[in-house]
Amino acid sequence: MKTPEVIVGGHAVLDFHSQLFAHADWPRALVAADERSVWHWIAQNHRNNSLLWDEEDLARRTRASDAEITANKRAIDKYNQARNDATERVDEFLLLSLGLIDPTSVGSDQPRNTVAADARLNSETAGSMIDRMSIMALKVRAMSAQTVREDVEQAHRDGATSKLSRLLEQRGDLASCLDALLADSRSGRAYFKVYRQFKMYNDPRFNPVLVAEQKR
After folding, report:
1. Side-chain-side CA neighbours of residue 153 (13 Å)
2. Contact yes or no for 214/162 (Cβ under 8 A)
3. Residue 96, phi then psi, degrees to nearest 5
């Protein structure tokens, strides 16, 4: 992988998430982007979070068949795995651009960090922050819709408006925290790692139920 040159910024990510919502075919079709760009993987993460959100809504139907709910649950697993995979790719791109990872270890199960001895390890990765910002963008969009509903009482809209204000505050705080982590990482004061999720329930080699099915 060629070392990327772009370092993302918190408010640029906020704007990017909003721009993706504006596409008419979102989230069913991914907006075309270069896979060698970190923005491609931020878009992939956001798309899978959006698809996951829709499936979570459908899975809570009370008048759907068992087969329909099962299909929803399997789609949720698929999108959740893809969401996590994209998050890890975002982390790899950012660590490469910061010079904080051995390029030869990118894509392996154990990526190797190259950091100053006195740098602090941040427990949350930059990619995880961007993932949370994606989810917050979905919450903001959904709550915004509640503030303009005409089939509910004004008290409902007022409550939604109050909640929306809090969500916007949280999303803005996340953007600022992302900027702070990237600034500290760039200066050598901090770093983060790529942690593989190893979702065992999706892997037929590790899920004990799937292993038992294969033996029967």
Report:
1. 3
2. no
3. -65, -45
**Is residue 175 in a domain?**
yes
Residues of the chain whose pLDDT is less than 70? 1-6, 32, 198-202, 206, 210
SS3 123: coil
Task: State if pTM tops 0.85.
Answer: yes
Place of tokens 């950091």: 115
Can you tell me which residue has the tokens 């427990």? Answer: 123
Q: Is residue 4 part of a domain?
A: no
Residue 1 in domain: no
Start-to-end C-alpha separation, the chain: 42
Read off the tokens for 204. 């037929």
What is the tally of structural domains in the chain?
Answer: 1
- Domain assignment of residue 137, given as a range: 10-215
Cβ count within 10 A of residue 107: 12
Residues in the chain: 216
Q: Is residue 5 part of a domain?
A: no
- For residue 181, how many other CB atoms are within 10 A of its CB? 21
Distance CA 142, CA 114 (A): 41
pLDDT on residue 199: 64
Which two structure tokens, joined as six digits, stand for 198? 């190893």
